[in-house]
Every structure is written in structure tokens, then in C-alpha cells.
Design a protein that fits this description.
This protein is an alpha/beta fold and about 260 residues long. The chain is about 30% helix and about 20% strand. The chain has 2 domains: about 130 residues, D-Maltodextrin-Binding Protein, domain 2 (3-Layer(aba) Sandwich), CATH 3.40.190; about 110 residues, Periplasmic binding protein-like II (D-Maltodextrin-Binding Protein, domain 2), CATH 3.40.190. The strands form 3 sheets. Strands 9-8-10-7-11 form a 5-stranded mixed beta sheet. The protein has a 3-stranded antiparallel beta sheet with strand order 1-2-6, with no helix packed on it. A 3-stranded parallel beta sheet has the order 4-3-5, covered by helices on one side. Strand 1 and strand 2 form a beta hairpin. The longest helix has 15 residues. The chain is globular, with a radius of gyration of 19 Å. The chain starts with 6 loop residues before the first strand and ends in a 16-residue tail after the last strand.
Amino acid sequence: MFSIKRISAVMCAGALALSLGACSSKETASSGKKEAGTGYPTKAISVVAPSGAGGGWDLTARSFTKVLSETKLVNQPLTVENKPGGGGAVFMAEYATQQAENNDMLFVNSPPIIINNLKKEGNSPYGYKNTTPLAQLTKDYGAIVVKTDSKFKDLKSVLEEVKKDPAKLTFAGGSAPGSMDHLVSILPAYKYGVDPTKIKYVSYDGGGEAITALLGGNADVIGTDASSVKEFLKAGKVRVLAITSSERLAGDFKDVPTA
């Protein structure tokens, strides 16, 4: 895994993967041959979470570095850097333009950011051509969440409200429009017959910031990942209206319907 030049990491509500950036497949193969047997990495590796602390990307990056360090799969130090902005788009641009020759940096983000530039409404010119997925590492599900004292007791009541007036509620998430949290927020409304472009969505720099906005009354509903809200659910601070899994989850989410 670490014999290949310039690595990045990619996560979605379905998967976390390692990615190789700024090389074609042919270049990747030759780079791997050249660097094989060199003992790479030879210095500290930076693992970037393109969000603030507390969200899914941050938790994934820290879990990832913890496992690699404790199992001695990587003997060099691994550090986590938080670089929020644009739901990952800001660091994607930095990664593609300023870190192109950096062999010692990993990048955790969601596949929707990788393909964001393929959409006409995409907010970044960088994406799949600047990264190459290497491995899927984890799996998570999206969650549609409100505060515990919210008047909304189920997903249908939210959908009925936005059907009457799509702009009445403020949805929020820790990713840019077109990325994972945005899709988790608006796809149920789209399936319910609501024009998703009319829904008010506010993007924050990570799931942690989105949860803070919800708890502070600056958002009515958030779309995020299940792992980010687990502790808030256990503490009784939020109500999870639905999980984007095909079957109900166990444990703390056993009473939460699927979407």
C-alpha cells in the first residue's frame, strides 16, 4: 500500500478508501516498481481530514492512524490534520495543485467529492482525475437527524412540511452541495415529489459543525453519517428520524426506521 507514489484516502457514507492522486494508471504502475524496496515511507505521514474535529471524516482519520500505528503496519509517525472548507472542496483544490508531489500525505473524503466536478453544478474543477481510489476500508450509513425537542417525530412529518413549502425548513450538513450530507438531506424529499433545488441547505465544514448548528437552533434538520450522531443519540440530545440502510441497524439505532 505504501510503495505507491502519492497516496490519498477516500470515505463515503458507504465506504472509506485509500486513493492515489495525480498519476495515471500507467504512471502508477511504474512508480510502484521504482519505489518498491526503498523502505517507503521514510518520514511522518500526514492524514488530512477536510473538516473540523468531531465529524465523520475526523473520526475516520483518527481511527485509521490509530490502527496503522498500533498494529505497526506503518513504523513512521502518523499525524491527523484538520483542514476544513467547502465540505472538502477547498482541500481537494490544495491537494491537486499544491500537494501533487507530496508522497507523505493521505486524504480522507467522500466519493461524491471525487465526482463533484462531473456535475454541471459541481463546485470544484478537481476530482477523479486528481485521485485514484486504492482500497475500501470502512462502511457507514447516512442519518437524518433533528433535536430531541423538535416537533418532528418521524421522517414523513418532515417531508410533509417541505412539500407544503420547500424553503420553510433549514437543512444542514458537513459537506458541500452535491456531496454526501447534501444528498442524504434532499433525496428523501426528491423521492417524495419535492423539487430538491428549492430546499434550503446550508453546508458546514464538517459533521461536527453541522451538529453544533442543529443543537444551537441554526438548522432544523441535518443529514450526516450515523457514526457522527451516535454519542449525541445516547446522550438524548438528538432524535434520528431515519437511517439510509436497507435493514434496521442494531444497538443504539435499533429503533430507528430505515429510509
